[in-house]
Specification:
Length: 138
């Protein structure tokens, strides 16, 4: 009878080790590199641009760009919208920032009805040295 008890104890230990290995394997697979690729970020940026462009998306809720023109009233409205609402609208899973730059690549601050803001999007995004998205200047 002792042989049968030893065999079942060995079987239980092997089963526990197997379950631990499976759990560790899935944990590693789930937490593995979830950093977006440059190509996927570029695709998402183009999708957001197209969502703001009336010519490319006539039914856009944010008709900021019309050809080569920017509608100042729509831009002001866009800058006043909560970034979480924009993330949902643009179906974005990544941090983003929508901002303007002039021909010299200087950030153009936009009045959102209350403040002059560098951009609209996630606060963690650095646009330029010392300038983050949603940064407000007096």
């Amino acid at each position: 009878m002792k042989r049968a008890q030893t065999l079942s104890l060995d079987l239980m230990i092997a089963a526990v080790i197997f379950v631990i290995i499976v759990v560790v394997f899935y944990a590693i697979m789930i937490s593995s590199d979830t950093t977006p690729t440059t190509a996927s970020l570029h695709e998402e940026a183009n999708a957001i641009y197209n969502s703001l462009n009336v010519e490319r998306n006539p039914s856009t809720p944010y008709p900021v760009i019309d050809g080569t023109e920017i509608d100042p009233a729509e831009l002001e409205r866009l800058y006043g919208i909560n970034p979480d609402v924009l993330r949902e609208t643009f179906n974005s899973n990544n941090n983003f920032c929508i901002f303007l730059a002039d021909e010299n690549k200087n950030i153009v601050f936009v009045y959102d009805g209350t403040n002059n803001k560098a951009g609209v999007g996630d606060d963690e995004v650095n646009i330029s040295q010392g300038i983050t998205c949603n940064m407000v200047i007096p």
